[in-house]
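Sharing a chain and its predicted structure for anyone who wants a worked example. Both blocks are below, sequence first, tokens second.
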Amino acid sequence: MRTTQVSVIVPTCDRPKYLRQALASIRALETGALKFEILVGDNGKDPSSRAIAEEFGAIHMKVDRPGAGAARNAGLKAATGEFIAFLDDDDVWMAKNVVNHIAMLEADPKLDGVFGQIVCTDMDLRPIMEPWPSSAPDNSDALVKDMLSGYYPQLAGTVVRTRVRDEIGLFDESLLGDQDWDWQLRVARRRHVGFTPTQCVLFRQRPPGSFDKLRLRRLGFGRKVFFRHAVPEWRLWKSPFAFMGAYTKVVWQYFDYFTEAAIERSEQGERKAALGAVAGAFRVFPLRTLYHLVVFKPLGRATFRAIWPGRSKPRAGAA
């Protein structure tokens, strides 16, 4: 019986409880025909991370540079398996992950990698939405276009051939956000990527409004990654308006985040935090934010409640 070895790269930073769950979920998928080389890139300070990695037979690598990209690169450089897979330290692999990816890769030697589905959960791993995406384009141009229009394949649902590392390089460590999206776009733009409708990973979502600074930081990196890859692929759009429509879809998630945060905080009487969220929405889409304030959409109502608490609606003529 042939044994396939997969190198699994796990970046971690001071989350030993979650790291234990993540590594256990990887080992749970091993069989006689499937073995995992687990590579833990650690740029945190908690000494228990090493002990946990060793408990699960993983290779622990201390990384002195910040960011998930640097931690992933440590594992990427050391990987010796035929295939490479990924898992963040706060997520969990599902029972059918990897196997279908490898079957597709072995059936088609031209494929560089395969993307799968994710299941978003709360912090206790309770699903909060259906597996996503339900499908992805077979046409390679369409896949790249989708990825530049708001489709972010989660890295933990991705398996690539190890040769891809040698051909496209490492993660861009200057990107402290969206370096995974950037790397996957580099893979996808080679036009040899498949999709399996397989539920691959339980993907923890932080509570709404709990990470404003991180969202704003990622906004800048997200914009950079979009233009880095979309400009060379400009032919995929029929007009400049369609191109900018794709950009809008990419950054809309940030506008949604700050809109929801502003509404929730104003309802809870957190005036300063609500106005901070409105400012965040303005940084994403200045004109759209002004429009929402003027026509008194939910973001506008949240702003009104934060400025004038106790009033349920504006004075006459204040629309």
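Comments welcome. Confidence is low (pLDDT under 50) at residues 314-319.
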